[in-house]
């Protein structure tokens, strides 16, 4: 849903919360670096990630398929110790992120970031000084989407009412569905593999569906 109807339906929204992977940042570097570390072709690991997510499994299962028996947390620590740990910089951001988030803040919306990421990713994102009040990750909170506890922490962090809070993400089953169950308004972003795979998802239907963050900012700021 886009245009005037969506704008009217979301008129009570005062707070916008963004997912991270394939919403604000591309996941190319993350999975490519894991493939290089494990010594498997990047295409192989990428295909495995797509397969497990399409099956409704956690994307970390792709690492366990590529290397059976792997202890992901221990392997992540070894990568960090070897100087090949997780990295994020400006080149990982989608080009519409800064202008869209800034436009929303300028229009009076509270902007927050909360996704299923590591604590290190949270620190890296905060160092990038995005136009957002807070940046939080599942590892820092000790709970992850699609758990109800994650969205309870979203509301605790933003201090906003569920009906006044819009959660924006690319994954229907981990973003739209559980956010809606928690009473939040929802926006499905059709980009990245999951956004395109489930572009027609309608169970439950999102309050808004967009193909980019500039479009989102335009819809929300109309008439303000």
UniProtKB/TrEMBL annotation:
InterPro entries, per database record: HAD-like_sf (IPR036412), HAD_sf (IPR023214), S-2-haloacid_dehalogenase (IPR051540)
Domain of life assignment: Bacteria
Pfam families noted in UniProt: Hydrolase
Keywords: Hydrolase
Presence of keyword Hydrolase: yes
SUPFAM superfamilies: HAD-like (SSF56784)
GO MF terms held by the record: hydrolase activity
Coiled-coil ranges from the UniProt annotation: none
PANTHER family with a match to the protein in the record: HALOACID DEHALOGENASE, TYPE II (AFU_ORTHOLOGUE AFUA_2G07750)-RELATED, HYDROLASE, HALOACID DELAHOGENASE-RELATED
UniProt protein name: HAD family hydrolase
């Amino acid at each position: 849903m886009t245009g005037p109807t969506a704008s009217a339906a979301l008129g009570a929204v005062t707070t916008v919360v963004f997912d991270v992977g394939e919403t604000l940042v591309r996941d190319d570097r993350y999975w490519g670096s894991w493939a290089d570390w494990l010594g498997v072709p990047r295409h192989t690991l990428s295909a495995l990630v797509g397969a497990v997510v399409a099956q409704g499994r956690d994307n970390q299962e792709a690492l366990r398929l590529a290397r059976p028996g792997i202890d992901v947390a221990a392997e992540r620590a070894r990568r960090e110790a070897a100087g090949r740990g997780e990295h994020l910089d400006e080149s990982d951001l989608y080009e519409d992120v800064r202008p869209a988030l800034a436009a929303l803040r300028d229009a009076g919306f509270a902007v927050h970031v909360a996704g299923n990421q590591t604590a290190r990713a949270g620190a890296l994102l905060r160092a990038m000084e995005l136009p957002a009040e807070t940046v939080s990750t599942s590892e820092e909170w000790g709970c992850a989407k699609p758990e109800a506890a994650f969205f309870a922490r979203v509301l605790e962090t933003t201090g906003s009412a569920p009906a006044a809070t819009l959660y924006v993400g690319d994954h229907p089953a981990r973003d739209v569905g559980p956010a809606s169950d928690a009473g939040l308004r929802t926006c499905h972003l059709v980009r990245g593999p999951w956004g395109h795979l489930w572009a027609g998802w309608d169970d439950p239907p999102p309050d808004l569906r967009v193909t980019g963050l500039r479009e989102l900012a335009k819809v929300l700021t109309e008439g303000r």
